[in-house]
């Protein structure tokens, strides 16, 4: 048989045939089984095509003040969704805090643009890491 007519079949113990024909964003984006299979148990930090960096960072810097921190017991998608496309100040568990411009909220994660002090960078994080937030 000529080499160009040979078909090589590769076996990988962790890849099922259906996975070979799927994309990371097929089906419901926040499906837990998809996340565990494709992202090792971690939620994806980037939204599906059409909801990502192509939306664009803000064209202006965030406000020059730090807002007062509000007491928050848990951050869920519904509570932070009202901050989409708005300047949002975020306090993480630990000591990090920064201005953020969210453009996507999933069931377990959020992504958008984080202010570095000099410009905006695309950024994503688990909602569990956010201690509190406020948007203006």
Structure report:
The protein has 136 residues and is of the alpha+beta class. It is 12% helix and 25% strand. The chain is built from 3 helices and 5 strands; from the N terminus they run H-H-H-E-E-E-E-E. Strands 4-3-2-1-5 form a 5-stranded antiparallel sheet. The longest helix has 8 residues. The termini are far apart.
Offer a quick outline of the entry.
The protein has 136 residues and is an alpha+beta fold. 12% of the residues lie in helices and 25% in strands.
Tell me the total number of β-strands.
5
State the helix count: 3
Strand content is 25-35%
Helix fraction, binned, reads: 10-25%
- Characterize the main sheet: 5 strands, antiparallel
* C-alpha geometry: globular
Strand order of the largest sheet: 4-3-2-1-5
Termini distance?
Answer: 69 Å
Low-confidence stretches: 3-43
The average pLDDT score comes to 75
Order of helices and strands: HHHEEEEE
Q: What Rg, in angstroms, do the CA atoms define?
A: 20 Å
Structural class: alpha+beta
């Amino acid at each position: 048989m000529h080499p160009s007519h040979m078909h090589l079949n590769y076996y990988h113990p962790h890849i099922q045939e259906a996975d070979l024909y799927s994309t990371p964003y097929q089906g419901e984006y926040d499906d837990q089984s998809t996340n565990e299979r494709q992202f090792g148990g971690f939620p994806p930090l980037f939204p599906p095509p059409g909801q990502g960096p192509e939306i664009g960072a803000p064209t202006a810097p965030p406000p020059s003040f730090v807002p007062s921190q509000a007491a928050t017991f848990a951050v869920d998608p519904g509570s932070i969704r009202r901050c989409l496309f708005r300047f949002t100040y975020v306090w993480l568990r630990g000591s990090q805090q920064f201005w953020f411009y969210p453009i996507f909220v999933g069931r377990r994660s959020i992504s958008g643009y984080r202010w570095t002090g000099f410009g905006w960078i695309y950024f994503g994080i688990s909602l569990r890491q956010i201690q509190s937030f406020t948007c203006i």
